[in-house]
Amino acid sequence: MAQQGRASARVWCAEELFPMLACMDRIVIVGAGQGAAQCVEGLRRKGYPGAITVIGEEPVLPYQRPPLSKKYLAGELPIDRMLLRHEAFYAEQRVEMLTGRRVARLDRDRRCVHLDDGSLQAYDALVLATGSRPRSLPLVGAEAPGVHVLRTMADADGLRFEAAAGKHAVIIGGGYIGLETAATLRQLGMEVTVLEAADRLMNRVVAEPVSTYYHHEHTRHGVTIRCAARVIGLRTAASGRIAAVLTDAGELAADLLVIGVGVVPNDELAREAGLDCDNGVLVDERCRSSDPLIYAIGDCSNHPSLHYGRRVRLESVDNAFEQAATVAANLAGVDTVHNRVPWFWSDQYHHKMLIVGLSGGHDRMVLRGDPASHSFSCCYLREGELIAIDTVNNAKDQMAARKLIAASFRADPSKLADASIALKDCGI
């Protein structure tokens, strides 16, 4: 979700950059996810007339990723409805889409990228939208048939092909992806066990009442949750396929295994090209890297949060969209700073959780409402300021919080604790 970086990035002033922008006839976007699609739309909307090329490793046009662990995995959302835009749109906008292609190297001196087939794509400006990849586990057997991660459409297709009612799925990781996948596999009739190394679910991103609520909800739907679980190995069958997960509390039979223990940024191209990186590509408030002709957006980008006063790397669709819009505006000659309060969401069963803001550094948490009512919030304060909120089935609070957090709203904890008082009326 949110990962903090430590280093700083070169800050470029307008006097240095605008002469460069005036001669940008070709923009190349590496990565074909949601950020890339938004960048394309933003460039054309802002009137950028030059050539645009998008290069993506997956053999499919940019699509929505959030449904991969939910409706798409369940077979309820066809591929056609996953696409952000159809082929005709890119043709009309004169965008060259190179799907199923991989960039092997960035050549900053020649201002071009080398593709895996040996061809070159020249650029005047380059946008890195390379995203992230699932974190691996150093376990023998982690590459065996029946072991899955869930990041791409192909991953979801492979998992759905093997999912069958009555079979047992083990999921390592009790974060967003693990729990969303658990809910979907239960919907498909599988027996599901979730193994979480921490003492509670989603411990890095939500307050304890939210963890407890989702623990109870998953248990109520038949999922077995084991927290403080340590995985020590995997056992494969004679066929080579996954057969069991070995934990410090014993062995769990597994017809399939899903590993969902977080992601790491795809910043290797940037590192190899000599760009400043630290838990992602370091960029300034305009999403520019240490090379003024190269930008980075989305999961691979580590940017300064002006509101929170620290560097963060955010794994969020909203962040990718907003950074893409910032880059598109800047490339079109409109000086734009990225300064948004982030938000995140997760759908599990019929429950909608939304998080607004970043809770790191809070000194007080106030529970607002009763979890037993299936609608409540957890408010995070720092020296009296509302800096973040977790909401469960509570649209009013999350909508109000977006404006209040951005405005550095100072709250009265006693009012916050009274759910009958509108959030906007909880000020000091």
Compact overview of the structure:
The chain is an alpha/beta fold. The protein is built from 11 helices and 27 strands.
Structure commentary:
Strand 2 (26-30), helix 2 and strand 3 (51-56) form a beta-alpha-beta unit. The protein has helices spanning 14-21, 34-45, 79-82, 87-92, 153-162, 176-187, 208-220, 268-272, 317-331, 395-406, 413-416, and strands at residues 2-3, 26-30, 51-56, 95-99, 103-107, 112-115, 120-122, 125-128, 132-134, 147-148, 168-172, 191-195, 224-226, 231-236, 242-247, 250-253, 256-259, 263-265, 281-282, 294-296, 301-305, 310-314, 343-348, 351-357, 364-368, 376-382, 385-392. It has 428 residues and is of the alpha/beta class. It starts with a strand and ends in a 12-residue tail after the last helix. Helix 2 (34-45) packs parallel to helix 9 (317-331). It has 3 domains: 2-133 and 263-331, FAD/NAD(P)-binding domain; 136-259, FAD/NAD(P)-binding domain; 350-425, Enolase-like, domain 1, CATH 3.30.390. The strands form 7 sheets. The chain has a 5-stranded parallel sheet. Strands 10-17-11-12-13 form a 5-stranded parallel sheet. Strands 23-24-27-26-25 form a 5-stranded antiparallel sheet.
